[in-house]
Design goal:
This is Nitrogen regulatory protein P-II. It comes from Sinomonas flava. InterPro entries: N-reg_PII, N-reg_PII-like_a/b, N-reg_PII/ATP_PRibTrfase_C, N-reg_PII_CS, N-reg_PII_urydylation_site. This protein has about 110 residues and is an alpha+beta fold. The protein has 2 helices and 6 strands, in the order βαββββαβ. The protein has a 4-stranded antiparallel sheet, with helices on one face. Strands 3-4 form a two-stranded antiparallel ribbon. Helix 1 runs antiparallel to helix 2. The chain is elongated, with a radius of gyration of 17 Å. It starts with a strand and ends in a 17-residue tail after the last strand.
Length: about 110
């Protein structure tokens, strides 16, 4: 099993969710995040005063997947999240040793 985690632009969440639903993903976790990458934030002008925005708002999307589905889910997220501009985000995949569905006690891939 794999845990696919993506940190992406908030405005891309709907297209990512639609792509994952079309692929057949039955569950995902979404949470707010903030941070910066190579762009290191930006300077904004508000009412004539400049101020620095160091932490940029992002969305964290997590999907638990079977090994054989992970590559296709990864590509679905990348395709839906990409704008071709700096700040599109990052996606990474990590191995998951075990999963337990709390309600039923199912373990492993049946718990996904």
């Amino acid at each position: 099993m794999k845990l696919i985690t993506a940190i992406v632009r908030p405005e891309k969440l709907d297209s990512i969710r639609e792509g994952l639903e079309a692929y057949g993903v039955q569950g995902l976790t979404v949470s707010s995040a903030s941070g910066y990458g190579r762009q290191r934030g930006y300077v904004q002008v508000y009412r004539g005063a400049e101020y620095s925005v160091d932490l940029i708002p992002k969305v964290r999307v997590e999907v638990l997947a079977a090994d054989e589905q992970a590559d296709e889910i990864l590509e679905t997220i990348i395709t839906a999240a990409s704008t071709g501009r700096q700040g599109d985000g990052k996606v990474w995949v990590v191995d998951v040793h075990d999963v337990v569905r709390v309600r039923t006690g199912e373990r492993g891939s049946t718990a996904i």
